[in-house]
Design goal:
The protein has 289 residues and is an alpha+beta fold. The chain has 8 helices and 9 strands.
Length: 289
């Protein structure tokens, strides 16, 4: 009886510790959301100025191109800023287009980061496009995937039905899986595959993250969803990422599956029920609070 009481006491302490850590993570995300909002405001102002200036420069070029063409026809050769005019005529429109695309990408990244780190009520449920969620998650970790994976392949299945749930929390799961995959990279070139699709027989959508990194031993694989279990404690790992992801997926009526072998990589797959294929949608409402 004493051993049983001691075991129950440890379980209660572990549950209390988990809740405390989850509250800490929630508070940290809220603080991050406030910080990102301020940074986004500071970035968006100069970005807006650059966008306006680029539009002006493009109008200048369009207006002056015919004049410069005429001058070139008469002189047959002249340079602008040390660059021969025919070369400038080819390159300048592309340079302006690249600059505009770069600025627009910065705006998208800031917007996605602000949305991801923002404060969203846990009962903020709606129809979720899985492809959009995974695409945003990839955008947030782009710097990690570029560094870790020498071969990145992404496939989005077309005409997927919707999921009913909290898009921010599903995105959090996708980010966690992508970060874990990147952290599994070794010195050898690593391939990373990200796939979405539909299981017709079970009416489940899935997204899969497959890497060819270091992989995991069976003993580690059995415990990866345990709270506070991590093999990266010395690198600042808390062991909460996959535990929280598992809870989020379960609360959406889904499941997570992992396959891994040491030295051969890991495949993580998340299955989520198609909208209308959930027995009781109110369970999502209650369990994600």
């Amino acid at each position: 009886q004493g051993a049983k009481a001691e075991r129950i006491g440890r379980q209660i302490k572990d549950q209390a510790r988990l809740r405390q850590e989850q509250l800490y993570q929630s508070a940290k995300m809220a603080s991050l959301g406030t910080l990102v909002s301020g940074v986004a405001h500071e970035i968006n102002n100069p970005i807006a100025t650059v966008m306006l200036n680029l539009q002006v420069f493009e109008k200048f070029w369009q207006s002056s191109e015919s004049v410069l063409d005429g001058h070139f026809e008469r002189s047959k050769t002249f340079a602008v800023g040390g660059m021969p005019y025919p070369q400038l005529k080819r390159r300048l429109p592309r340079l302006l287009s690249d600059a505009r695309e770069g600025v627009e990408r910065v705006k998208r990244i800031v917007g996605d980061l602000k949305e991801f780190a923002g404060i969203h009520p846990s009962d903020s449920l709606s129809d979720v496009d899985l492809n959009t969620v995974v695409e945003k998650a990839l955008g947030l970790v782009r710097s990690l995937t570029k560094k870790a994976a020498s071969d990145l392949h992404v496939h989005y299945a077309s005409d997927l039905p919707s999921i009913y749930g909290n898009s921010q929390r599903i995105e959090q799961v996708a980010v966690n899986l992508l970060v874990n995959a990147c952290q599994a990279a070794t010195d050898a070139p690593m391939a990373l595959r990200v796939t979405t699709g539909l299981q017709e027989d079970s009416r489940e959508l899935f997204f899969q993250v497959e890497d060819t990194g270091m992989g995991m031993a069976p003993a580690v694989l059995e415990r990866i969803a345990d709270p506070f279990f991590t093999t990266k404690r010395d690198q600042g790992g808390t062991g909460l990422g996959l535990s929280i992801s598992h809870t989020i997926v379960r609360d959406h009526g889904g499941r997570m599956e992992f396959e891994s072998r040491p030295g051969q990589g890991t495949t993580a797959t998340v299955y989520l029920p198609v909208k209308g294929n959930i027995d009781n949608p109110e369970e999502i409402h209650g369990s994600t609070r």
